[in-house]
């Protein structure tokens, strides 16, 4: 079954976090699954991310013409990103020991790329041509290392996704209020009703 790459699946707020979130429910070993199990989804994700992450990418489109070939490097960046930043959010600091794997994975995404990045207004290079998805993923992941970004990273208490909190007072709790916020509210309502019934029946 193909994945529908809806806006909800891009609530990470940064390409590298949206990619980390393609593994769903990392907090639940029974329910977790990987939306990139079919490598063809990497290309479809890249296509959708070109639109949802246009601001971050400076309008440069992502391309993944051979998703099967790049799958190992994409997954290695994704997993190293998740491990490093999930720990950093929980502990408030980056574990130095996570950096070698993370940097090696990012190097894998960038090696062989002949593109130029980081010019003013062109963070991911010239928007006239597309950029290889694995190279852009590495650039996005490396951008997370900035101090002011690390401080704004969060873990959704409902689905365990990583996201960046850009709210002015740093008070965003859910990856997506409309999905995880409401689900949690419904759970609380259900628990209250059940508790009330138990008291009545006692
Ligand atoms: Zn969530």
UniProtKB/TrEMBL annotation:
Classification via InterPro entries: ABATE, ABATE_dom_sf, Znf_CGNR
* Segments forming domain Zinc finger CGNR: 152-193
Protein's UniProt name: Zinc finger CGNR domain-containing protein
Q: Which Gene3D superfamilies does the UniProt record give?
A: Jann2411-like domain (1.10.3300.10)
The record's SUPFAM superfamilies line, in alphabetical order, gives: Jann2411-like
Q: Which Pfam families match?
A: zf-CGNR
